[in-house]
Amino acid sequence: MADRVTTSTARFGLTDPRAEAELRAAGLWDDRGPVAEHEPILSALSRSPDPDLALRGLARLREADEPGWPELRAALVADRRLRGRLAAVLGGSSPLGDFLAARPEEWRRLHGPGTPPARYTDELLAAVRAAGGGEQGPVAELRGTEAVKALKSGYRGLLLELAADDLAHVVERELPALDYEVVADRLSDLAEAALRAALAVAWAENGGAPAQDGCRLAVIAMGKCGGHELNYVSDVDVIFVGEGDTGLATRVGSAMMRVATEACFEVDANLRPEGRNGALVRTLDGHLTYYKRWARTWEFQALLKARAIAGDPELGRGYTDAVAPLVWTAADRDNFVVDVQAMRRRVEDHVPSELVERELKLGRGGLRDIEFAVQLLQLVHGRGDETLRIGSTVDALAALAAGGYVARADAVELAESYRFLRTLEHRLQLQRLRRTHLFPADEDTDDIRWLARATGIGAEGGKSEAQVLHAEFRRRANRIRRLHEKLFYRPLLEAVSRVPTGALRLTAQAAQARLAALGYTSPQGALQHIQALTSGVSRRASIQTALLPVLLDLLGGTADPDGGLLAYRKVSEALAATPWYLRVLRDEGAVAERLAFLLGTSRLVPDLVVRAPEVLRLLADPKELTLRDPEEVAASLRNVVRRHGYLGNAVIAARSLRRHELARVACADLLGFMDVLAVCSALSSVWSAVLEAALHAVDRAEAASAGGHLARISVIGMGRLGGAELGYGSDADVLFVCEAAEGVSDTDALKYASRVATAVRRLLGSPSQDPPLQVDVDLRPEGRQGPIVRTLESYRAYYAQWSEVWESQALLRARPVAGDADLGARFIAMVDPVRYPEGGLTDDEVREIRRIKARVDTERLPRGADPTTHTKLGRGGLADVEWTLQLLQLRHAHEHPALRTTSTMAGLAAAVDAGLITAAESAELTGSWLLATRVRNAITLVRGKPTDQLPTQGRELAGVVAALGSTVPGDLDDPGEFLDHYRRTTRRAHSVIEHVFYDD
């Protein structure tokens, strides 16, 4: 019989061996099993968080009021709402079950409509008055232990109603579920009512009524109560403000804390000035004096949720109105953001390591992660945006999202996770009405199962409810932590906090004055840009409004603030339809800072970024910006081009990838993440990849019309391309060499290759919005008069019979860069004897090179150019150093193989090893070449177009110095001093060149 009974009761989730006996005593069970009439009660018990606990609670309720049991049983059968509320409370909270057992008549609270929050205070005061002698008894009767007991009973009764509303849907799914916000709001209202009742008792115990003898006292709620987001079991943080007889006010405040603590919850006043060592009650002036002179950062953070809830309403409003300006300017304090971040780390460090993953409140991915992030964002941005001045965390998240300070998806995720964790916290606290924030340990599966049932989480996908809850808890915690670190440690926050509060809300006239002070030469024009960016009520305008105060400061520190702001407007308008653009600037503070520097320094970068916006994402990570393998770039280009059957589209694709790479390299260069040799190598690699891709596309198209590939073609890089030393504005000097395919005549092969080479030059050089792609073939045999393409044997014959010394010099930097690799290698092997002549140069050939160099110096330098600041042809410039090295190579490479290099830097090092120049001379030449190269690149970046002349004054010179950044010695960041440094460096190099190049 026992086995049959156990099996039957287990059907209702009851495992206690006493279950059947208790059910029989209640009249819910007979010899045939559950009484059909009463089975709805058993079904409700089975769905409660703990059916055994719920049944024991029901049995105790029956035993406490045996005569009233039939009425309750009948009501439970007839009323689904009562059934769900009572079963949920009894199975979800042992103390509330104890309360019902002690006061069985209180079950009627769950049967009626319930007490509206607006009547909480009246009901508690009525309960206390009744205990003191009657509903209309004098105030003096609101005192003593009976008053405390009455307040405790009234508070627990209202808590019972709220818990029943909160849990009922777990048992009866048809009943409405209360949102977390509703529960927290009602708990806060209940706490306020309890404090008001406790304050009334305190006044009575101290011999009078509020405001007697001019004594006034206001109670200010802080923390969760102040923010309308209280827990079931939580300290209620308060601050007292008094006027008049502060001694009496202190006695009343102390009595209020004692009464409320004994009856309802712990009342904590340690957030007052000076903490537990400070006076319990201070005057309003005393509070303000403290906050203005002594308060620490965390105290203003705590005041964010301050709200007057009891006592003198006028005094309470006076307090909140007076401290609000201090709260919303706290972010102006030095190291404000750093202090708040440090406070969060200290809080987390105090959590025992074995509990940090289980702490719902203080641990990693817990409630404090969300609250600290939200409060920091509020305090920083709320200085200028009053919509953020909200106490509730969930409401503040919504306001932050509406204002564009947080991504909508992030705000939704954080709000949902906050509600989830707070709901778990509420259930855990209700279980025993104890303050706890610990998720059950992994091994406590029964506790996790109870928590899942109490939260309304069921089994799914083959997983038990405990497994589902555990997985969801871990997922939420990990997501919260990631978003916390993203928002809380956002570099932009610190930048925003450095903008004075007054600068966030300026009149037009004041704004112009501030812009002028920041360095804008046209404040009125800057205001027009700001208005264009922030006008309207769109989310984009809201985010711009939040970003611009910081960006204006950042741009103000660049060489050209006006140009930078104009560029920012152009970029923003061009990328208006790009959904992630403003989000990246807002969420990745490093991106905003770096973009401001780029836009205020370079005219080239904004144009590139508009057409290659994806580079902006790379600004967040220097590694992503710099560490890209040239082979990977080339492979990407080839793959992109191959996907396009139409030749024009293939070349457009090649241009697009080149634009992206050019923007990437330019940003990395300006930000100091790539040195000059890496920049030159990357630019050369991109050029080679573009040539390779374009040649492949054209060759494929030409072969399709010609019936096959009639020739193998190789592109030989010359000049800076061959030396892998291209700058931003360099042309690509090349030679085209071909070889007839098997069975094809040289004539047909040359015609085919010429069509391919001409098409490559035309397509790459056609006008576009991108920097030009000029393929220069003027270094070919016979110069502009010679054919664009020759066969390998034609080159061999020409160089053997007609080659001049300058052509040998040009071939020193020859290197295959695209096309048929084997043909390119054979071309290099063929020209090696020409460029590294056996026996070196004759005296006549040396004189010829010197004559040509002298002619270049006098004829090719642009009219009016300053030879001391022309980076290419000026004294000690690029041409000076390169011609000097090339003369050494032509004369000595036959006997010193290390000189056989296309690299200027490697050649100078080899010349030292060969004893042709001293280490000191090499250092002067190397320093001058590197400086001239850096300056030449910087000029192009700053001006937006290629030029070799270093500016000697004004914003452009300042821009060049800023663009050089970390490559400029620290004491030369003044433009005038840098100009002197450049001239001094090139002058010393020119002195070495005069000696090495012209002296035998």
Automatic annotation (TrEMBL):
CDD domains registered for this protein in UniProt: NT_GlnE_GlnD_like (cd05401)
GO molecular function, one term: ATP binding
Keyword Thylakoid part of the UniProt annotation: no
Residue ranges of domain Glutamate-ammonia ligase adenylyltransferase repeated in the record: 176-316, 593-828
The keyword Transferase is assigned to this record: yes
InterPro entries assigned to the protein according to its UniProt record, in alphabetical order: GlnE, GlnE_rpt_dom, NT_sf, PII_UdlTrfase/GS_AdlTrfase
Known EC number: 2.7.7.89, 2.7.7.42
GO biological process: regulation of glutamine family amino acid metabolic process
Domain PII-uridylyltransferase/Glutamine-synthetase adenylyltransferase: 345-488, 869-996
Catalytic activity: [glutamine synthetase]-L-tyrosine + ATP = [glutamine synthetase]-O(4)-(5'-adenylyl)-L-tyrosine + diphosphate; [glutamine synthetase]-O(4)-(5'-adenylyl)-L-tyrosine + phosphate = [glutamine synthetase]-L-tyrosine + ADP
Keyword tags: ATP-binding, Magnesium, Multifunctional enzyme, Nucleotide-binding, Nucleotidyltransferase, Transferase
Cofactor: Mg(2+)
UniProt-annotated stretches for the region Adenylyl transferase: 500-1000
Adenylyl removase as annotated region, ranges: 1-492
Pfam families named among the record's database cross-references: GlnD_UR_UTase, GlnE
GO CC, alphabetical: cytosol
Function description: Involved in the regulation of glutamine synthetase GlnA, a key enzyme in the process to assimilate ammonia. When cellular nitrogen levels are high, the C-terminal adenylyl transferase (AT) inactivates GlnA by covalent transfer of an adenylyl group from ATP to specific tyrosine residue of GlnA, thus reducing its activity. Conversely, when nitrogen levels are low, the N-terminal adenylyl removase (AR) activates GlnA by removing the adenylyl group by phosphorolysis, increasing its activity.
Family: Belongs to the GlnE family.
Name of the protein described by the UniProt record: Bifunctional glutamine synthetase adenylyltransferase/adenylyl-removing enzyme
Native organism taxonomy: Bacteria, Bacillati, Actinomycetota, Actinomycetes, Pseudonocardiales
